[in-house]
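Sequence in, structure out. First:
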Amino acid sequence: MQITCNCMEQSCAIDYEEPYFQRRDRIRQDGVTCFIDISTLYTYRSESRLYITTIDPGGFRNIQNILLLCIAVLLLALVIPLIMIHFFTGYFVERVGGGTSAGDA
């Protein structure tokens, strides 16, 4: 049996027949995509169950910031060694002879 509750003016289906219900999803609220988590909590010395709902409106923004930071670190880890290789190979070629052949001397 599924019953729909109203989570912050959004429909969230909760299956009350399931002994331990857990749902992780995303909803759109006030133009912001939010993470939502619903979990069952059994009470001590009682047959009652509580359904805990958590909504995180900053979750997607945090994930995007972490991804951008990882991409920036990867780009720096690739670009800086390439620049160093470029300059040091040029410096090494000039030190060794700069492309002059033995017949030119």
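Second:
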Amino acid sequence: MQVSIDEYKSYKGFYDLCEFKLTKRLFRKLWRIQDRLHEMEANKTYYQKWHPVQWGEAKEISACYQALLLEVSNGRT
């Protein structure tokens, strides 16, 4: 994962966090979540076969992540 917010590049298929009005703190937190979800998606078959519980948790985290971004985009946070 990149260190500087200025170096951020969104992953294909993920929301571009730069398009949201986020504090630096929230940006970094969501970036870490996005980075982890991207890594898990890249290894989807492995997680589904060998770590199905973690895969299920990743799907729940993804849903919460998307819900938070929706709230931000609607000005609720």
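Remark: The chain has a mean pLDDT of 92.
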